[in-house]
């Protein structure tokens, strides 16, 4: 948990690294499309679970929340309260990716205040800096919440650099949701060494693209985001919690 890209190279690398389950949660892609692509790349050796990392708040005040096990689409750019309420309504597992990372994350205070609504906190993210991962571990420990690891792969080479080992088999999406919501025993694992450090540095550097040309393309060239709450696909269901 989790990757942002999914194709034959990702699947091949995941299998070579001994990964059994990938959580696929690309930015700004609607759930039906995420689910269809996940199904396309799942087989007997690799389960790909669709998920959404929802951007709550506006571009000036973003807090990312990862939901696994959604049955209905949830847009970006809604309030944090609105996102948590919708995840709870759908019985999804609610996860905190990269807490206190830059300006796009839940703070320690957010996690503590919503502890009863959160199922796990990411305690290792390949893209994050060492100090950020240390802080994430502190937050999980202080709140008593289970942890999880993520390659957070935006680039193919990062797949399989970090993973979570559960105490049970995960054969279906529902199995993963149950393991997360029940707080199943697990072990957070990552690779080490120079190669791993370099892959993390490359992932971090990729933020430069995401926050420059990638953002310009989304905001100015591509029109309305597919996951904007005002998009026709959401039929006005989130107008009450939309921040735009």
Describe the protein's architecture and organization.
The protein is α/β, with parallel strands linked by helices and 244 residues long. The chain has one domain: Alpha-Beta Barrel (TIM Barrel). 36% of the residues lie in helices and 18% in strands. It is built from 8 helices and 8 strands; from the N terminus they run H-E-H-E-E-H-E-H-E-H-E-E-H-E-H-H. Strands 1-2-3-4-5-6 form a 6-stranded mixed beta sheet. It is globular and about 45 Å long. InterPro entries: Pol/histidinol_Pase-like. This is PHP domain protein.
Q: What would you say the CATH architecture is?
A: Alpha-Beta Barrel
Q: Report the CATH topology name.
A: TIM Barrel
Strand order of the largest sheet: 1-2-3-4-5-6
Pick out the low-confidence regions: none
Give the overall shape. Answer: globular
Number of strands: 8
CATH superfamily: Metal-dependent hydrolases
SSE succession: HEHEEHEHEHEEHEHH
Counted up, domains total: 1
Q: What is the overall pLDDT average?
A: 93
Strand content: 15-25%
**Spatial extent as radius of gyration:** 17 Å
Helix residue percentage: 25-40%
What does the largest sheet look like? 6 strands, mixed
Tally of individual helices = 8
Distance between the termini: 29 Å
CATH class: Alpha Beta
Derived structural class:
alpha/beta
Pfam families: PHP_C
Protein name: PHP domain protein
Organism: Haloferax massiliensis
InterPro entries: Pol/histidinol_Pase-like (IPR016195)
């Amino acid at each position: 948990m989790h990757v942002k890209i999914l194709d034959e190279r990702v699947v091949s690398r995941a299998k070579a690294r001994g990964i059994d389950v990938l959580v696929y949660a690309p930015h700004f892609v609607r759930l039906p499309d995420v689910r269809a692509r996940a199904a396309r790349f799942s087989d007997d050796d690799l389960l790909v679970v669709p998920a959404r990392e929802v951007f709550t708040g506006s571009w000036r005040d973003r807090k990312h929340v990862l939901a696994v096990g959604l049955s209905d689409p949830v847009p970006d750019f809604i309030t944090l309260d609105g996102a948590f309420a919708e995840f709870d309504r759908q019985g999804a597992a609610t996860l905190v990716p990269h807490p206190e990372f830059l300006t796009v994350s839940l703070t320690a205070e957010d996690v503590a205040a919503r502890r009863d609504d959160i199922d796990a906190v990411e305690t290792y993210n390949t893209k994050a800096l060492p100090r950020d991962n240390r802080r994430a571990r502190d937050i999980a420990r202080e709140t008593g919440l289970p942890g999880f690891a993520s390659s957070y792969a935006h680039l193919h080479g990062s797949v399989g650099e970090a993973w979570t080992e559960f105490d049970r088999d995960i054969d279906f999406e529902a199995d993963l949701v149950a393991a997360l919501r029940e707080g199943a025993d697990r072990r957070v694992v990552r690779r080490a060494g120079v190669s791993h450090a370099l892959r993390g540095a490359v992932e971090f550097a990729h933020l430069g693209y995401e926050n420059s040309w990638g953002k310009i393309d989304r905001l100015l060239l591509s029109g309305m985001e597919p996951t904007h709450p005002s998009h026709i696909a959401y039929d006005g269901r989130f107008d009450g919690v939309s921040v735009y």
